[in-house]
Amino acid sequence: MMPLLTTKGLSRNFGGLRAVDNVDFALMPGEIRAVIGPNGAGKTTFVSLVSGRIQPSSGMVVFDGADITGLPAYARVRLGVAYTFQITSVFANLSVYDNVALPVQRTLTDGRSKGAVRTGVMAALERTGLADRTHMLAGQLSYGHQRLLEVAMGLALKPRLLILDEPTQGLADSEIDNFIELVREIAKSATVLLIEHNMPVVMHLADRITVFNAGRILAEGTPEQIRANTEVQDAYLGTTHG
Amino acid sequence: MKDASPAKPYALHLGVIALLFALSFVLPDYHHGLLARIMVLAVFAMGYNMLFGYVGLLSLGHAMFFAAGLYGAGLAVIHLGWSVPAAFAVGILCGAVLSLVIGVLALRTSGVAFMIVTMMFAQVFYLVMLYLASWTGGDQGMVVPQPARVLSFGATSLELTNPTVRYMSALALFSIVLLVTLAIVRSRYGRVLVAIRENEERTKMLGYDTFSNKLAAVVVSGTICAASGAAYALLFGYVGSSFASVQYSILPLLWVLLGGAATTLGPLVGTLFMYYVVDITSGYTSAYLLIVGIALILLVLFFPKGILGTIRHRWLGWLP
Questions:
Q1: Which sequence ranges are marked TM in the entry (chain B) (predicted)?
Q2: Do A11 and A21 form a contact (C-beta atoms < 8 A)?
Q3: What does the pLDDT read at residue B1?
């Protein structure tokens, strides 16, 4: 099977800092892949390179067999690469409805159908459990609900690859359980690339885990393999093993 | 918000148009003439509001789009002897082309740089109009001859110098632009423009080419302003460089801020308010600008969102 996403020799420098260093990465369709690593390991920079928010210093990004390295972010979104932000950035002054209507109307090619936007919006809001808050301003939602709205906006793009950047950050435990269910649900129709610090969430969800450290891929494997990997334990815990 | 019943806003806008129509028959001559001028300039403000209010792009060069329409229409009549409709179309076309070119260049910047770049282009435009004095009349300007300001339909002809014809022409333009802006801001495109204003980076990550959307908004805005300028030349018969000066870039900003940015009726309210404050106070004192200044400060203090913006915020959430 051909990978949905591959990167070859992907690097990005910020001044003297090599935030992402020569990364070769492959992601199979339908997979839930978690990306973990200590702070500053280059996880967010890596997914920003994939989504096109920043340009690489060298290397290439291939999505579904096509080289997308030179494409601007909005064009990658149209190909099916959706990105939800680490720092919640819903449109606070717009209603929940309008927030989701923006991605929905973009995916509609039929300009006439007035009902289609509404149907699409409500479908995305039902899936994330926000349907009863349609007319609230997004800025008035609780933090957990704003995170869900982010996901709803990502879903509404009908992505083939959904990148979730620390989606459970700031969520209560009860909300996290629902969230895990939601991501499983999403993974039925899209490939998921998940940056996450919460280890129980990672271990529950991920089919495979990629560990970043200092801009490089340190290890990759199933949750069991990663759990048993001493190098990973060193990077995370700073301990040395005899 | 956006999917609320469309009946109320449309009823309100049609009501305003009907009221302006009715006023034509009851206003004394002086106010009749003033209101015709205000409606034309409110179109200028509506064009400005399109970009400033909805997309959040603060331009300090919109006088050039107004003046492009003014000169385009005026000079076509004066030098080429074109008919009124043809001259009006040329004026609008000049504004559309100019705003496309300026948009492509100026949108490479944002924020303060955008303000300065648009202001520089407007100054260039102003100085070029002065430089071409043999065609434009320089700082003296030119009068559009009365006999040329006639709308002919076959055998019947309407003289634009006639107060009623002038008022109704101004009202017709105002109504069309008002309903067009209402339709735009309620459309999907309007939703994208507001999203760009609120968070451009996020809008890009929803798959929108924000540059193209902003460019389209600059062209719509510039074209509306040019329509106002072209109408001004044809209805009031004067074409002059003062309309291209920086003062006329700042006035629409003031009108829009007063009336309420990102409200469809705010530009009319702001223009009306400003004109009447000047008109009333200048009747009492020669220091009327002092009173205008104080009025502006009070408004900013107590109505920071403009008159209609504050009304929408406090009472009428459905106002478009």
A1: 12-28, 34-57, 88-107, 114-133, 167-185, 215-238, 250-276, 288-311
A2: yes
A3: 41
Give yes or no for a contact between B38 and B196, defined as CB atoms under 8 angstroms apart: no
pTM tops 0.95? no
Helix/strand/coil for A130: coil
Q: Is B38 left (phi over 0), alpha (psi -120 to 50) or beta?
A: alpha
Q: Which residues pair with A198 in a beta bridge?
A: none
Q: What are the residues of chain A with a beta carbon less than 8 Å away from any beta carbon of chain B? A: 51, 53, 72-75, 77-78, 82-83, 85, 89-95, 97-98, 101-103, 105-107, 117-118, 135, 153, 157
d(CA A195, CA A83) in angstroms, rounded, equals 11
* Contact call for B2 and A91, based on CB within 8 A: no
Whether the CB-CB separation of B150 and B160 falls below 8 Å is answered with: yes
**DSSP structure string for B204-217:** HTTT--HHHHHHHH
List chain A domain ranges. Answer: 30-56+65-80+159-242, 93-156
The answer to whether B208 contacts chain A (CB < 8 Å) is yes
Domain A30-56+65-80+159-242 fold: Rossmann fold (3.40.50)
Cα(A141)–Cα(A145) distance, integer angstroms: 6
Are B199 and A91 an interchain contact pair (Cβ–Cβ within 8 Å)? yes
Give the tens place of pLDDT for each residue, B258-278: 999 999 999 999 999 999 988
Residue of A93, A95, A153 lying closest to B206 (CB–CB): A153
DSSP assignment of A23-86: EEEEE-TT-EEEEE-STTSSHHHHHHHHHTSS--SEEEEEETTEE-TTS-HHHHHHHTEEEE-S
Instruction: Select the residue of B1, B3, B206 nearest A102 (Cβ to Cβ).
Output: B206
What is this model's ipTM? 0.85
Break chain B into its structural domains and give their ranges: 7-245
